[in-house]
Every structure is written in C-alpha cells, then in structure tokens.
Amino acid sequence: MTNDKLATQIIASLNTSKISMAEEQHKKLHIAVFPWLAFGHLGPFFELAKLIAQKDHKVSFISTPRNIHRLSNVPENSQPLVDLIELPLPHVDKLPENAEATVDIPHHIVPYLKKAYDGLEEPLTKFLERCKPDWIVHDFAPHWLPPICSKLGISCIFFGIFSASGQSFILDLLMRKTSESPEDKALLDVLAEQDESGVSDMFRIIQTLNGAQVLAPRSCMEIEGESLKLLEGICRKPVIPVGLLPPSQQFSEDSNDGNWDTILNWLDKQEKGSVIYVAFGSEVTLSDEEFTEIAMGLELSDFPFFWVLKKQNTSAVQSQDWVVNESKRGMVWRTWAPQLRILAHKSVGGFLTHCGWSSVIEGLQVGCPLIMLPFQNEQYLIARLMEEKGVGIKVAKNEHDGKFTRDSVAQALRSVMLEEEGRTYRSQAEEMSKIFGDKKLHQNYVDEFVNYMEIHRPAIKD
Q: Model-level pTM?
C-alpha cells in the first residue's frame, strides 16, 4: 500500500470517527426538571430524573437549597450526569424562615409558599437562558414557565405525579367548569379560588398544561389503561406514561442508623403479618375527632400498629400523648420514617393509608393490602380503583355526614388483618405486586418516554 493510500485511509477513518462522535453528541439530551415544593412531588420527580440520567442524558434537577439537601444520594454511576441546581427561595411575608416545602408549614400558609415559588421565575429564566436545555419536565405550579420556554425554544413536559384516573377526573372537571355533584362543585370552587399567591390552582394547571407539548402521567396501561386513553382524549396532545416509578431510594431527612435500628428492633419483636402500618402523608390534616376515632379504632382492633405521625397530621396534642403513653400495642413515630423498608418488613400485614398515589404504589410494590381512609380529591378515586382491584377495603363512613367511627376503623382493620375475607385482599395485593413492583416493566415505560424525547427533541438552538 502506498503512503498516499494509507494517508487517505487514515483521514477517512478520522473523519468517520469525528462524524460518529458528532452524531453521538447530537443524541445527548439536556433535560431540566423543576418540581413543586412538596415531598410528594419532589420524590417522583427526582426518581424520574435519576432514571433519565441512567439513559446517559444530562439532567439538571432544580429546586431550593434545603430541598436539594433533603434528597437521597444520586447513584454513583449517574452522578456525572445529574446537576443539582439550587435556587434560593425569595423571602415572602408570612412564610417562616427556612420553610421551603409544604412539610415545613401548616396548610393555610401554602399559598405564601406558592408566592415564593413564583418568585423563582427570574433566576430560573436566567438558568434556562444560560444552559438552554432541550426539554424541561415541570409540575402544575409554574404558570409563567411555558411562555419563557417558547421564547427560548425549549419544549415542555407536564409530569403529572397523580394517578391517571385522578388527572382525567380533575381535567374533565376543569374543562366543563360545572358539575351536578355537590362534592365536585366544592372541589371546583377550591381549585378556582384565587389565593394569596395571586392566582388559583385552576389557572396554574390550565396554563402549564396548555403550554406543554406532552403530558407524562405517573401511570401504566396495566393498571389504568382506560384512564390513560380518556386523558389523551381530554388533553388532545401526546400522553406518554412514565410507569409507576417504584422507588429504589427515599429521602434521607432525619434518617440515620439509630432511627432505623429502633424501628427494626420493634418490628422484629412482632409476629409475622400482625402489624398495621399507619401513615397519612404530609398533606392530610386530621381533626381532633378524626384523630381520636382512628386511635381508638386501632386499639379496638387489638393489633400492634406502627403510626408515623407528622406534625401536619393533627394538632390534637392530648390525644397524641394518650396514644404515645397509654397504647398497649402501638408505637408512634414522630419524625421521618423509611416507609418502603417498614412496609416490606415481614411483620407488617396491612397499611392504613389516606390513598395518596405514592403511598399506594409503595404499599402494593411489596404486596401489602390496604385499609383505605381517603380524605380529599384524588384519594377517593384511588380508593375506588383499588377496591375494584380487590387489594383492600375502605373504612365505612356515614352517608349523611361523611364521618367514620372507631368501630368502622376497627372493623375494616379486622377485615384485612384477621378474617377470612382478608385472605382474598392479601392474595390480591401479592398478585398486584407483580405489576406495581415489576422494575423491568416500569423501566420499559421510562425507556419509551426517553425515546420520545430523543426523537422529538427541539431544533438545534443557536
């Protein structure tokens, strides 16, 4: 071979490598992720961010400093691809210092947190102008974001952390703006009410959804096929489910080995399948009467229970003290607890839950049957769906005033934990775990979601 031919081959090879590298670089996406300031939102958004990074795309996860520090660790192999972007939360009157998430404040202060969140518009805009990501995955709250992204050539994805059935119900209600049902009318009034942030939740949802190119629900066809089809009909835009995102890691706030050792030591002393795990998330506030009826119902059921009681759940201090000091069979845990690890423990036989979507996913991920006590909005729809699936039972409520009693709580607990009927719930929950806990299935949904972003990436920006 002559020197000229050899040189020609080397140059051709180098050019091919350059083209290959350029194509590879072109395929890489930069995705910004911007959740609302609530743990129930931060968790799924962060889980999705980590899964996108595992597909070898760069992710900028954007939140406030305290929330960033409360996240679990990014897996070592994904760390180079995940940037944690801290935007300081602007000061707002009536919002306590260091309050950066709904868990830090009582419910009536949340509108001020929304006002502070809206104050992130300027620093977020500067970040987007500087970094120009291909996509931004956002929540319901930043109504001001779509016009900014449109101007910058950034495509928007509305990530809905709620069930598809919940989202289709809410969106249908918002589109119709009327209902014959008194409960639906009451919900519509709440969503349409302009709060101290200056806008209503209805306005936020409509603006962010209309401005998004894609709706990505936390759902899957195997559980909510009909609702996903309905959602696409309502939105009239692509609906790309991301799967259920069964969590692999949890927030690390207030968790340490000592805490888990204490919890584990207590659980290990209980008989297999005998413990009721009780948790109502961080958004549910119980009245004194509700708290007392739940506490007495647990006592009446005669089962050991582990109750994660957050300060937002109740102000019934005397009742709390009674449960802590007088309960013969229960343990009350007042700080953050590793929910998934507790639910997976062999001693836990049932989950008394408010039916938040994340909680239901975690419970059924490990095959734990549900005792369902929904309090608001989507929770009722999820409870109905799960009852249809046969994985649990709802606590009976009075038809006239919607109240439950200690006896109805105890009866529901016994139905799942003890009686013949409970075997069916336990069996169905175990069967449902094959879908809820199927990592491969839900990874496939993430793969399809990422594939959609790759194919439909925006035109190259200057």
A: 0.88
Q: Which two tokens stand for residue 52?
A: 């996108």
Among residues of the chain, what percentage have pLDDT more than 70?
87
CATH 3.40.50.2000 maps onto the chain at 26-246+440-455, 257-437
Q: Is 41 in the active site?
A: yes
Maximum CA extent, the chain: 96
Q: Render pLDDT for 283-298 as a digit per residue (tens, 0 to 9).
A: 888 888 999 999 999 9
Cα–Cα distance, 280 to 310 (Å, whole number): 8
Superfamily of domain covering 26-246+440-455: Glycogen Phosphorylase B; (3.40.50.2000)
Contact 35, 41 (CB under 8 A): yes
SS3 for 457?
coil
Give 353-379 as a DSSP string. Answer: E---HHHHHHHHHTT--EEE---STHH
Separation CA 416–CA 305 (nearest Å)? 14
Phi and psi at 438, nearest 5°, equal -80, 95
- Give the chain's mean pLDDT: 89
Selected catalytic residue, list 41, 345, 354, 442 = 41
pLDDT at 120 over 90: yes
**What is the spatial distance between Cα 370 and Cα 361, in angstroms, rounded to a whole number?**
11
Whether residue 391 has pLDDT greater than 90: yes
In angstroms, the CA 313 to CA 288 distance is: 10
For 241-284, how does the pLDDT look when each residue is reduced to its tens digit (9 = 90+)? 999 999 874 434 444 557 889 999 999 999 999 999 999 988 88
Q: Which of 104, 118, 134, 139 is catalytic?
A: 139
**Tokens encoding 71:** 């996240």
- As a whole number of angstroms, the distance between CA 400 and CA 165 comes to 26
User: For residue range 163-205, what is the model confidence (pLDDT) as tens digits?
Assistant: 999 999 999 988 887 777 777 888 888 888 999 999 999 999 9
CATH number belonging to domain 257-437: 3.40.50.2000
Distance CA 272, CA 16 (A): 62
Structure tokens belonging to residue 141: 């709250």
What letter represents residue 289's amino acid? E
List strands edge to edge, sheet with 82-86.
Answer: 82-86, 58-63, 30-34, 135-138, 155-160, 214-217
- Does residue 442 have an active-site annotation? no
In 3-state terms the chain splits into helix, strand, coil percentages (rounded to 5) of 50, 15, 35
Q: Which helix (H) or strand (E) holds 330?
A: strand 330-333
Question: Mind listing the pLDDT tens digit for each residue in 151-164?
Answer: 999 999 999 999 99
Residue written as tokens 């529901």?
A: 412
